[in-house]
Design a protein that fits this description.
Strand order of the largest sheet: 1-2-3-4-5-7-8-9
Number of helices: 2
Distance between the termini: 99 Å
Structural class: alpha+beta
Length: about 170
């Protein structure tokens, strides 16, 4: 019985041969048609993605003059717009005169040629008084020049501050 068992196992081992690689199958006409449709869809989707990255309004990327003025104090600096998406910009800038500073960091969405929606932080230190604005606000081109003016003009002391971004 033991010898029959060993003979059976030896036969099984010897009869097993490694699998050969099967010949590559030819691609059917239906699969070729589907591949060509998918290639066209990829081209279409890529062209849509490119169009969705293009600005609706004028591109404002680059440096813009930043001006601050209030009662008796006026100074200027620069604000840099870096495009992050369609009509969205990351902005950062500084205006400084002596110990008076205005620091802006955040994002701007250009919603029309006249309106910029700002979300971020505006920190100002004027004559030793610090004021921080963190609410969403709007810069508006009122038609009085080539600049957008911050619409939330009243600071914590009740005075009017003019913060302008020139284009």
């Amino acid at each position: 019985m033991k010898s029959l068992f060993f003979v059976l196992i030896a036969t099984i081992i010897c009869s097993c041969t490694p699998n050969e690689n099967p010949a590559p199958r030819a691609i059917s006409a239906e699969a070729q048609r589907i591949d060509s449709i998918n290639a066209e869809r990829r081209k279409w989707n890529d062209s849509i993605a490119i169009k969705n990255q293009q600005n609706i309004f004028k591109d404002e990327s680059g440096k813009h003059r930043l001006k601050f003025s209030t009662d008796g104090v006026a100074f200027s600096g620069w604000l840099t717009f870096i495009k992050s998406d369609r009509d969205f910009y990351n902005v950062s800038g500084l205006a400084k005169s002596g110990s008076n500073t205005l620091n802006i960091r955040g994002t701007i969405k250009k919603v029309s040629e006249k309106h910029l929606n700002f979300d971020g932080e505006i920190m100002q230190n004027i004559n030793g008084n610090t004021f921080k604005r963190t609410k969403k606000s709007t810069f508006l081109d009122g038609g009085k020049g080539n600049f957008w003016r911050l619409q939330n003009k009243i600071n914590s002391d009740g005075f009017v501050d003019y913060i302008d971004i020139y284009y």
